[in-house]
Amino acid sequence: MAIADIDLHRWNREEYERLGEAGFFPPEARLELIDGLIYHMGPQTSFHSTCVRAVQDGLEEIFSAGYDIRVQMPLALGDDSEPEPDVAVVRGHFTDYTFSHPTTAVLAVEVADSSLLHDRRRKIPLYARSGILEAWLVVLRKKAVEVYRDPVDGAYRSQIVLRLGDVLSPVGKPEASIPIETFFPWEHRSARR
Predict the structure, then answer these.
(1) Is residue 17 part of a domain?
(2) Burial class of residue 147 (count of CB atoms within 10 Å of its CB; 0-12, 13-18, 19+)
(3) Scanning 27, 34, 162, 168, which has the fewest C-beta atoms within 10 Å of its C-beta?
(4) What's 72's domain CATH number?
């Protein structure tokens, strides 16, 4: 018996956005379009949410005038991808993106718990292929930040892992530095009281 050849439908950004506008997806759905496939993102843990806020706060201290810090908002990366990084630093003012999503970022940050493999295998490579100069993967369970830099031919050539006690300087603002502890506020909560 022959097996039928069945094609997978790959969506483009225009189709994906039309589906959203038509109410095809439930309003509370957390979805992303990556390489033509629509992925459902699971609910966020309190640690994930807290870490996203900590990253946002840390980056707002460094990237002020001339930048917008976007939290879980779309980037239009090519015809078939519209990821929503946990945090993205883009050039300009938020009103610059009233009529279309940004098509690149200075920095894309993913906070990973249950999404670790998805972020590492799909989203980080997408950011490299899209020419985003730097991406961070904040790994909650390891209390570490994987730093990806220098995209060449669709892959990051530089990859380092930083842990508690280390300091990170973004490529877009090399004169600034952020202690890795900033992203894990529960590790030093008593010191803040």
Answers:
(1) no
(2) buried
(3) 27
(4) 3.90.1570.10
Local structure of 61: helix, strand or coil: helix
Task: Look at the chain and report how many structural domains it folds into.
Answer: 1
Q: How far is CA 168 from CA 24, 60, 92, 144, in A?
A: 41, 15, 23, 11
Q: Where are the alpha helices (DSSP H) in the chain?
A: 13-21, 46-62, 116-118, 124-129, 189-192
Domain of 151?
A: 44-192
Q: CB of 60 within 8 A of CB of 83?
A: no
The secondary element (H helix, E strand) that includes residue 157 is: strand 155-163
Q: pLDDT tens across 51-109, in order? A: 999 999 999 999 988 999 999 999 999 999 999 999 999 999 999 999 999 999 999 99
Label residue 27 by pLDDT band (50, 70, 90). confident
